[in-house]
Amino acid sequence: MDLTVLLVKGLIILVIFAITLGIAAYSTYAERKVAAFLQDRIGPNRAGPWGLMQPLADAGKMFFKEDFIPAQASKWLFILGPCLAMLTALMSSAVIPFGDTIKFDNYAIPVQAIEINIGVLYIFGVVSLGVYGIMVGGWASNNKFSLLGAIRAASQNISYEIALGLSLIAILMMSGSLSLKAIIDEQATFFEWNIFTQPLGFVIFLTCAFAECNRTPFDLPECETELVGGYHTEYSSMKLGFYLFAEYINMFVSSAFISALYFGGFHYPFMNEISQALEKSLGAITGHNVATAIGVVGYFGKIFFFIFFFMWVRWTLPRFRYDQLMNLGWKTFIPLAILNVVLTGAGLLYNFKYATWLIAIVMIVLAVSTMTRTPKREVMPQRTV
Amino acid sequence: MTTIIMTETLNFFKTLTPTGYLFLFLTALTLFSAIGVVTARNPIYSVLALIATFFCLSGHYILLNAQFLAAVNIIVYAGAIMVLFLFTIMFLNLRKEDEESKTNLTKMVSVVVGGLLMIMLITIFRAKSAQVPMVNSASFSNKTGLVENLGQLLYSDYILPFELASILFIVAMVGAVMLGKREAGDRHF
């Protein structure tokens, strides 16, 4: 390994780390702006132009608040909880390939912190560890509401991890590799994007990602109406900030993961034509780098769309009840995901990639037929006084 | 006498590669957290120490170039089974801690049983027939532990044990469902 290659690699790792933190910080701002937009308000607009300094102001406020540890709490675990949440959230963006390669001289360096041939499993492992931060913090608070929130988080995460993993297996069967880079390269042409070959898997994966991130409509661990503040009832100051921040980092990582798995990552339509034209006009190396940059920008566009989608859903759907959540996970998603795996396998036997559309079509037909068969309620005109 | 031991240990440390140092460090950490599992008074600390032990074991797998095994170890043991453990212990811990089950008799019995197990393991590992052959670095392929090779082996040479293990899991799952199922007249929690 050459020193320059090592330097560029280190730079990429640092930049990915910084970008993850920056995006998470501005997600808090975006969340409030999106909420304001959906509720016909203005939202934060005091700190800086259009309120752009709001994340900084929030962080400053968090740091200067009283840092409180309850007397009966287990002190070290109380501190360990938010640290674990933050650590596991930050670890997962390491294996995501944000772009193709950067070329200089004779080197081609992938825009990715580390390339391991089990990238998907790595992310899956880190995600499954994410619940420890919540559990440890909730238990250490020595508070019944915190404990109940922590236990809800644990059971919810375990339940939805199964469906998440099963919907992922269908993709692994199609690409035959556990490396994220290989999965992205599999989706080189537009109609081979996994969203077209795995529509059902995508829906299951997206919903499970919501549940894994504890986002509304699955944010039962912090359900205010039942549990005061949930697992972070006793937390204040930057420890609370870490928990909230970890949630936004998780949101960013799962958006990146969803776009990598189902929306072709850094691929975009007519990519080959564009990169060839660029290489012809700007020279092989510069053209390639510009093409890579376009891919990275496209990838971030997809990621931002999914972050927006997370927020859109949060301010649109109400929270599920806990039994509804469990029924949805165990009785709907797991059987559907298994069916998805079986049909994908059957399709791959005959070299047909779009086999799972069968389930999707059957489900749509069933839904439409039940909709038409249910008697229509009469529209009651609103009475005016 | 002590100087000889000192120089020998020093020489031993000089011969180590960075991987060797990493191995020693990881091993010390593993033993430390494994001892923590049995000595911790609070069951929650015990479980957390056990999770740390699993992490150290995964580190050992990575040192052996078995990335897949390391990742699966973390997903299955640290990520799923230990979460369930913690989950159960948190519920049990809502009541008062009971120290009464640890009488002198149980302590003695557990020491005897544990000592027997240790002697058995040591004799097994020291037996001539169980000795692992030395690695021939010329014919050794460093891709042995990677997922592709593991999959090839599992689905060709070891297909029968692999499938039998899956049947075992199905049986365990059905058993768990049977145990957890409510009968018609049972109390509704």
UniProtKB/TrEMBL annotation, chain A:
Gene of this entry: nuoH
Oligomeric and partner information: NDH-1 is composed of 14 different subunits. Subunits NuoA, H, J, K, L, M, N constitute the membrane sector of the complex.
Species of origin: Spirosoma telluris
Coarse class of the protein's main subcellular location: membrane
Tagged with keyword Transmembrane helix: yes
Keywords from the named record: Cell membrane, Membrane, NAD, Oxidoreductase, Quinone, Translocase, Transmembrane, Transmembrane helix, Ubiquinone
Family the UniProt entry places it in: Belongs to the complex I subunit 1 family.
MF GO annotations: NADH dehydrogenase activity; oxidoreductase activity, acting on NAD(P)H, quinone or similar compound as acceptor; quinone binding
Catalytic activity: a quinone + NADH + 5 H(+)(in) = a quinol + NAD(+) + 4 H(+)(out)
Segments traversing the membrane: 6-29, 76-99, 119-141, 162-184, 248-270, 290-313, 325-348, 354-372
Membrane topology: Multi-pass membrane protein
Location(s) in or outside the cell: Cell membrane; Membrane
Origin superkingdom: Bacteria
Name this polypeptide is given: NADH-quinone oxidoreductase subunit H
EC number from the UniProt entry: 7.1.1.-
Biological function: NDH-1 shuttles electrons from NADH, via FMN and iron-sulfur (Fe-S) centers, to quinones in the respiratory chain. The immediate electron acceptor for the enzyme in this species is believed to be ubiquinone. Couples the redox reaction to proton translocation (for every two electrons transferred, four hydrogen ions are translocated across the cytoplasmic membrane), and thus conserves the redox energy in a proton gradient. This subunit may bind ubiquinone.
